Amino acid sequence: xxxxxxxxxxxxxxxxxxxxxxxxxxxxxxxxxxxxxxxxxxxxxxxxxxxxxxxxxxxxxxxxxxxxxxxxxxxxxxxxxxxxxxxxxxxxxxxxxxxxxxxxxxxxxxxxxxxxxxxxxxxxxxxxxxxxxxxxxxxxxxxxxxxxxxxxxxxxxxxxxxxxxxxxxxxxxxxxxxxxxxxxxxxxxxxxxxxxxxxxxxxxxxxxxxxxxxxxxxxxxxxxxxxxxxxxxxxxxxxxxxxxxxxxxxxxxxxxxxxxxxxxxxxxxxxxxxxxxxxxxxxxxxxxxxxxxxxxxxxxxxxxxxxxxxxxxxxxxxxxxxxxxxxxxxxxxxxxxxxxxxxxxxxxxxxxxxxxxxxxxxxxxxxxxxxxxxxxxxxxxxxxxxxxxxxxxxxxxxxxxxxxxxxxxxxxxxxxxxxxxxxxxxxxxxxxxxxxxxxxxxxxxxxxxxxxxxxxxxxxxxxxxxxxxxxxxxxxxxxxxxxxxxxxxxxxxxxxxxxxxxxxxxxxxxxxxxxxxxxxxxxxxxxxxxxxxxxxxxxxxxxxxxxxxxxxxxxxxxxxxxxxxxxxxxxxxxxxxxxxxxxxxxxxxxxxxxxxxxxxxxxxxxxxxxxxxxxxxxxxxxxxxxxxxxxxxxxxxxxxxxxxxxxxxxxxxxxxxxxxxxxxxxxxxxxxxxxxxxxxxxxxxxxxxxxxxxxxxxxxxxxxxxxxxxxxxxxxxxxxxxxxxxxxxxxxxxxxxxxxxxxxxxxxxxxxxxxxxx
Length: 758
Prior knowledge:
This protein is about 5% helix and about 30% strand. It is mainly β. The strands form 7 sheets. Strands 12-13-14-17-16-15 form a 6-stranded antiparallel barrel. The protein is globular and about 75 Å long.
């Protein structure tokens, strides 16, 4: 078992020991953990800095070279920091980017250089989200002086709002119908400029007493006792086509930040298990002991320098790490923090689910998140970032690490590198979606550098610790989380290992936000194209081979090939310098399905042949989608629709490519809404209550879903076709069912080249 270090605590059951804590069992001891496969070591509290290993060796991702703010500073700094953390919003302009507003909170936005002339070729986008679903966002501009609309403009969008403003305007005021607003400022290369604008953006105070968003139906339910509880493992993702926004504040509500006490400096991450327990890396907990670090835990955090009403700061009353943790190899790199007070659970702060013990999750697409450095040796961001990485087998990983990866570890990353966790992400979650809920597959541990080719990130394998974590959750904290914290046991098929850098179909380029990343979703769906006759897309489509585009018949019926252009590699059609990959291709041939009916939209399917073939780049930023399986109805699966369509029924088009996730349904259920208008060549998707849908301008675009259990690649199951309005309750979107046309597609695209499935 090894030696056990004691402080003011006693070893219980001869297996675990714990640090002193402000609570006891009545005998002067803190009873933290019962039996476990190893011992935990006593952890005293207070703090200094964490020294990393040399970068040529294993790198624990624990915030290397992060200096605590109280070092070499005045003794009263801690009180000053506390005052700053609790201060009201200062009357200074906020930078471009995403921001949250509590009810009644207001901030100032200004054009750069205001009140001097704004620069040329400026692009600035502010995205505001109210923390209360009952708030509305208002922008008021006392000073607004721009040039003509062709040279500079401000576009303001939100629910029921899409306005473009330019020139000189007095008393400009706009209000969204919900708690979201996007403000986009752009200027041209013209040397004629004015002083710009200074505006106040404010979230209204709801008429009800609620100050935070009420839990959604997907994240809350009522237990047998009739009390509200929070389920584990559900994400807070935004709706991105109708009524949508681009921010993802509190998307992963189990994510916590471990910070130096009294400050906002993040040195490790962690995951909430229940209202009292946080699981993190052993080397994070060991560092707290070795360097006397006093720590707080931030829950519900997004921008740590701009806390919202959602964020909670709770101290640590006890901590422990696995007794068989090996500092040399980082084996058993699992630690536990016991909060000094229960967290208040909500849809924005809730636990992660534990994984299924029988699943090693190889081949699954995983998400790791944290406030770690954005590049190896770089600086840390204030805002929580994420990156998608595929989980690789231990056998493959040991080929890179020469046998250093034990059965208690798992690896995730790309052979070509470029995406990874990094210093400061240690202890944070590696999660996968399993049977509709997100489970904690790994705990960020170590790696050779960050995002290097042939060196994936290494994580503690949580399936090896399910028993002890479950036992802890039963004894410490509330576990009334709407049932079991583990996913429902089901039989799953074996999935393929992650693809290499060669051409494969159906692979998303999810947001790369930790190492080598950016905060946009540019090229996330590399098969998406737009049909245009100028610059604005009027329909969508998808790349299915190097010469062919799949779209809707009603988009091109009666058109000549010379009148249609295809935008490839596009993201923001209103910006020409955003990406060098955007191309406008000519079309040499249009094939409309011979049985297409313009009256019923049956067989709403068409193929466009490009005048020259696409050369698919190795970085996957332009790639085909996979075609679906024959005979699969794809009923009741989550599907993703993408497009540049209007953001509300009858509204204006989005400049940027957007997405929305909706569940499909059986045709018999869809016929309850549309009757016999739904044929066997169609598939429907949408929520009974409405609110999420494709819309005008999305026609011809793809509806995709995971091609395997791990969703490591996507297949196109539908082509956006028609519907009653957009996002109306009781009227789902209707799509052409792609797997009814596989023979027709194959015969017409013969001779072209596509990419195999991963």
